[in-house]
Specification:
Layout lengths: L8 E9 L6 H17 L7 E6 L21 E7 L8 H4 L9 H6 L4 E9 L8 E9 L4 H16 L5 E16 L2 E4 L5 E7 L12 H6 L4 H7 L2 E15 L19
Length: about 260
């Protein structure tokens, strides 16, 4: 991405439960009906899209290697953040999870879950239905070649895959992990790419055209670059729910109050 192509910010939050006492149903009810509306009530965040994990494709990324670095989380939420500096504001730091929540919420949600929070420069329009996240750390010696490959070969090839809508790239600003309400700095790979897809009606399985995508990683340039990365995380996602800031906040009453909501 050239320096002249500037976008608003992106808040990237991957999450998972850590205890059988916190069911996915209860966790998602709190996350979608209480937490996200609270986040979007702030002036510095405008929209959110929540994704649920798709099964990993059962095929090699390229000859002789299995698919590397699958992101170990079940859900992903992307927030549009027009000004990334808003993350330093009093309002944002006052959110549950950024600051200490009330005792029951901490005990029943935060002590039983993990959240990987990352802030990136850049975001774009409303995502389509499916998403591939690719987070890669090239070596210092190959970083220039990596970016050249991504911009000049890789994205142009992916753009020709059926169902592709757009691809966007970002550089990491900072990141942390909240595990059982203990926050530590994290060091994920530096470069994030979001590949948005709207699978065609004739697609099989989960819709992502994996055979065509794998071919994008089998060119000589791709093989050279991917053989020399220091780290890689890949995630496959489909939209679970969209938010535009008009949803009311549902008061959280504990994990036992969720009932049988699907």
């Amino acid at each position: 991405m050239s320096s002249s192509q500037k976008h608003p910010g992106l808040l990237f939050v991957a999450s998972k439960t850590l205890s059988p006492a916190l069911t996915p149903l209860a966790f998602n009810a709190w996350y979608e009906d209480t937490h996200i509306p609270q986040v979007l009530s702030l002036p510095g965040l405008t929209t959110a899209v929540r994704y649920e994990k798709l099964p990993a494709p059962l095929m090699p990324l390229f000859e002789g290697k299995e698919f590397p670095g699958l992101l170990p989380y079940e859900w992903l939420t992307l927030y549009e953040m027009p000004d990334p500096a808003y993350r330093e504001s009093r309002g944002f730091k006052g959110l549950d999870g950024q600051s200490k929540p009330e005792e029951r919420l901490e005990r029943e949600i935060f002590r039983r879950a993990e959240f990987e929070t990352r802030f990136y420069e850049g975001f774009a329009d409303e995502p389509p239905t499916h998403l591939i996240t690719a987070v890669i750390q090239p070596t210092p010696a190959t970083e220039s070649d990596f970016n050249k490959w991504y911009d000049e070969e890789h994205i142009p090839m992916i753009s020709k895959v059926p169902g592709h809508v757009k691809s966007l790239r970002y550089k990491l600003l900072d990141a942390s992990t909240l595990t059982k309400f203990e926050r530590t700095d994290s060091r994920p790979p530096r470069y994030l790419a979001l590949h948005h897809f709207r699978p065609e009606a004739s697609s099989t399985g989960e819709g992502l055209p994996m055979e065509a995508l794998v071919e994008c990683d089998r060119t000589p340039w791709s093989l050279r670059v991917l053989e020399n990365v220091e780290g890689m995380e890949v995630g496959f996602w489909r939209v679970k729910r969209r938010f535009d800031g008009t949803e009311g906040v549902v008061e959280w009453r504990g994990v036992d109050a969720v009932g049988s909501r699907l």
